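Work Package 3 (structural annotation) set out to generate three-dimensional models for the target panel prioritized at the project kickoff. During this period the team completed the workflow that converts sequence records into C-alpha cells, so that structures can be stored uniformly alongside our sequence database. As a representative example, we reproduce one entry of 259 residues exactly as it appears in the project archive.
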Amino acid sequence: MRLFVAIDLEGVTGVVAEQDTARSGPAAEMARRHMRADLDAVLAGCLAAGAREIVVCDAHDDGRNLDPAGLPGSVVLNSGPAAPHSMLQGIGPGFEGALFVGYHARAGTAAAVLEHTWNYKVFSACFGDVEVGEFGMGALVAGHYGVPAIYLSGDDKAALEAEALVPGIVTTVVKRGITRLAAERAGKPTLSQLVDGPTALAFGYGDILAVARAFSEYAPTAPPAGGGGRGRQKAIPTYTLTSGKSVRDEIIQDFKGKR
C-alpha cells in the first residue's frame, strides 16, 4: 500500500498563534516539534496499517519545516517552495489514499484556529457555488490522479469542512477553536492513541465522488493570485471540454481515476 501525506502547520496540535507559524523564534521551534510529533503519529499508523511506502509533503509556507532525521526508511519527504504541485508535491497515480495532517479551515470560518486560504489576501475561493479551502483544493488535486482523500487532522472546524466535502473521511480533532487565536487543546495523545496497538488508523474511504457531485455546472474559476501568506498555492488541474462533456463530468472522471 502506498500513501501520500500532506502536512501543514496551523492545524497541528498546540498551534494557535501567528508566532507559532513564523519562520523563526521559540514559539516557531516549539510548533515544529509538535508538527513532527503529529506526523510521527500518523506515520506509525500508516505503517501499522500495512503501508510499504509513504510520500510526505512539507506543505507549510516555504516547505522547510521538517527535519528528515529519524524518519522511517519507507518515507520519502518532499521539501522546498518551488515545487510544481506545491502543497501536494509528490502526488500522482498509484497511491491508495491521501492524508491531510495539521490542516486548518478555509478563510472566513468562524471560531476556526488560524483560518485562511493560501494567504491573508484571499477571502474566498470557489468552484461554482461551492466554497473550498486548502483541504478541498488538495482533495481535488489528489482526485485528479485517482487518489481519494481518506484522512484529516486539525481543529474541529477543519474536520467539519472535510466531512462535508468527503462523507466517510476519517478525521482527528486535535483542538477545538474558541476564536481565531484561541483553542481548547487536546494534546498529543489524541493522535498517538489512534495508532496504539493493533488498531492503527482505520482508514475510511467513504464516497470519493462526493466532492465532484457537489459541483453543479460551472466554469472553474482561476485560483487567486497573491504572495506572502502562510499557505502555498497549489497547482490546480485545468479542464478542457471534449466530446461535449461538461466540466462536472470531467471532474467526476478525475475522481474515478479514469482520466
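Residues 26-48 form the longest helix (23 residues).
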